[in-house]
Amino acid sequence: MKIIADTHCHTVASVHAYSTILENIKSAKSKSLWAIAITDHNGNVPGAPGSWYFDNLKILPKEIEGVKILRGMEANVLGSSGHVDVPELKFELDWIIASIHEVTWNGSHGIEECTNAWLAVAENPLINVVGHSGVPGFEYDFEKVIPVFKKNSKLVEINASSFEVRFGSRVNCEKIAECCKKYRVPVIVNSDSHICEHVGRFDGAVELLESIGFPEDLVVNSSIERFEDYIRKNTTFFD
Ligand SMILES: [Zn+2]
Ligand SMILES: [Zn+2]
Questions:
Q1: For helices 142-151 and 111-122, what crossing angle results, to 10°?
Q2: What's the CA-to-centroid distance between 67 and ligand 1, angstroms?
Q3: pLDDT at residue 165 above 90?
Q4: What topology does CATH give the domain 5-234?
Q5: CA of residue 100 to ligand 1 center, whole Å
Q6: Is the pLDDT of residue 167 over 90?
Q7: pTM beyond 0.85
């Protein structure tokens, strides 16, 4: 399976990431990616940039060196209410990932709380991607929630970094992928790179999908046609 876009990449603006936008783009180009999304952290993640940074992403061209660039953000699901900390911006971002990060989550995170949170995220029109939802300690009722993601055109992320930095993720990620396969829910494969060398590094995620015979036609970024169709229908990128 070939992946043509990496829609979860961090830059120096996240502070705990170490490459610039241009370095990420050059890396994407060297790997023949069609598109990249720049998705730095928002909110109370330590060092995250404020709304001035995200508002000014409007100056970023939609294409550099032949690579399409989605101007995005990785926002935080703050607790069981499912509230996501997307700030009011003057500029409409192309791409928003909602993820649970322990550092910005409030309250307990049993299955019921996390299920309620993701059900609310599913109904949030601002969100494109459900980020690394296999994170251990924040399990949810996959059977109940994943079909609702599909109903609301949310893409379920299979995050290649999870296998290396979120210890114990694989078992959850496999259950999530199996559930997506069962209900024919589209997924997106991302690197979640924090340094340019990791842009376009999808190995663990692709291996997981192939190991369970996941249908390629449900991997939104496994063809330009499929990915372009998604962004045409669900974002303002081509407006
Ligand atoms: Zn994250
Ligand atoms: Zn990330």
A1: 10
A2: 23
A3: no
A4: TIM Barrel (3.20.20)
A5: 7
A6: no
A7: yes
> Is it the case that residue 78 has pLDDT exceeding 90?
yes
**Distance, CA 131 to ligand 1 centroid (Å)?**
7
Per-residue confidence (pLDDT) for residue 32, from 0 to 100: 98
Query: Ligand nearest 101 Cα, by number?
Result: 1
Helices (H) and strands (E) in the chain, counts: 8, 8
Q: With DSSP H G I counted as helix, E B as strand and the rest as coil, what are the percentages for the chain, rounded to 5?
A: 40, 20, 40
Inter-residue contact 237 to 230 (CB < 8 Å): no
CA distance 92 to 128: 13
Strands 63-64, 129-130: parallel, antiparallel or unpaired by DSSP?
unpaired
What is the C-alpha to C-alpha distance for residues 87 and 82, in angstroms, rounded to an integer? 15
- Tens of pLDDT, residues 10-65: 999 999 999 999 999 999 999 999 999 999 999 999 999 999 999 999 999 999 99
| Cβ neighbours of 208 (radius 10 Å) | 21
Ion ligand 2, residues whose Cβ is below 5 A away: 74, 192
Residues 102, 43, 15, 106, Cα dihedral to 10°: -20
Computed over every residue of the chain, the mean pLDDT equals 97
pLDDT category, 168, cuts 50, 70, 90? confident
**CA–CA distance, 177 with 154 (Å, rounded to integer):** 14
| Ligand 1 mean position, distance from CA 74 (Å) | 7
Q: Cα of 194 to ligand 2 centre, how many Å? A: 8
Distance 101 CA to ligand 1 centre (A): 6
Ligand 2 centroid–CA 139 distance in Å is 18
84-99 tens-digit pLDDT: 999 999 999 999 999 9
